[in-house]
């Protein structure tokens, strides 16, 4: 394919652009998006990857603008714009899914090690949401309840656990695929039939059973 400089004086080669959008970072973002979408709990924030993707998106925007101004075939430009739109969608959706989980489980996240999985901006968001929720409930409901029922975390002072706090359901079934042969696993303590995890095979298993394998990168969520 001809270079941009040969088709109107652009300084960036079209084949260089194609190499950019096919880099493994986009595939890694797809994987992070699939995992975050499928996992019941919030996963580790992919900060370095997100930063690289943002830099690539900026370069892609500049490249598309340069192509458009240089008189390159509009159909070719539109195809590159579609690639740009897909990458932007993946990034926005990845971040939006995480924010939804933070809103849903913010108190649980604040009181567990899940807090360390958030970005700095997400931590500020979670703290602000928790503070706002606490103030709202205190003013609208809790202040009107009898003593012993005014906790944001417990139904009453008689409760031994924080039974008013929503938690991710780790027993949720997920579809997963092994990257390589992992052998036979006893995935829970119920004494059920062991599962043989073979490369490329799809399995439907409880998330909590394969959580360590997901976190170590040996299994992908689908």
- The gross shape turns out to be flat
Query: What percent of residues adopt helix (DSSP H or I)?
Result: 40-55%
Class per helix and strand makeup? mainly alpha
| Spatial strand sequence of the major β-sheet | 4-1-5
**Low-confidence parts lasting 5 or more residues at pLDDT below 50?**
1-12
Main pleated-sheet profile: 3 strands, antiparallel
Q: How big a fraction of the residues is strand?
A: 5-15%
* Radius of gyration over C-alpha positions, nearest whole angstrom: 24 Å
What series of H and E elements makes up the topology?
Answer: HHHHHEEEEHE
Please report the distance between the alpha carbons of the first and last residues: 35 Å
**Average pLDDT number:** 84
Question: Number of helical runs?
Answer: 6
The tally of strands reads: 5
Domain GINS subunit: 75-139
Subcellular location: Nucleus
Family: Belongs to the GINS4/SLD5 family.
InterPro entries: GINS_A, GINS_bundle-like_dom_sf, GINS_Sld5, SLD5_C, Sld5_GINS_A
Briefly, what is this?
The protein has 222 residues and is mainly alpha-helical. It has helices at residues 14-21, 24-38, 47-69, 74-110, 120-140, 207-215; strands at residues 173-178, 183-185, 195-197, 202-206, 219-221.
């Amino acid at each position: 394919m001809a270079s941009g400089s040969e088709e109107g004086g652009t300084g960036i080669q079209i084949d260089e652009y194609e190499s950019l959008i096919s880099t493994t970072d986009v595939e890694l973002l797809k994987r992070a998006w699939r995992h975050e979408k499928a996992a019941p709990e919030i996963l580790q924030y992919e900060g370095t990857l997100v930063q690289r993707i943002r830099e690539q998106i900026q370069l892609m925007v500049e490249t598309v603008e340069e192509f458009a101004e240089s008189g390159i075939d509009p159909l070719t430009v539109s195809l590159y714009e579609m690639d740009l739109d897909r990458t932007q969608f993946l990034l926005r959706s990845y971040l939006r899914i995480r924010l939804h989980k933070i809103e849903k489980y913010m108190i649980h996240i604040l009181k567990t090690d899940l807090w360390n999985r958030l970005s700095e901006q997400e931590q500020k968001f979670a703290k602000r949401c928790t503070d706002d929720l606490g103030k709202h409930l205190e003013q609208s409901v809790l202040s009107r309840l009898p003593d012993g029922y005014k906790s944001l975390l417990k139904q009453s002072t008689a409760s031994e656990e924080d039974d008013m706090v929503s938690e991710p359901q780790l027993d949720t079934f997920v579809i997963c695929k092994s990257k390589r042969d992992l052998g036979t696993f006893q995935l829970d303590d119920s004494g059920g039939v062991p599962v043989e995890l073979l490369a490329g095979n799809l399995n439907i298993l409880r998330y909590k059973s394969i959580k360590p394998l997901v976190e170590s990168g040996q299994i992908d969520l689908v």
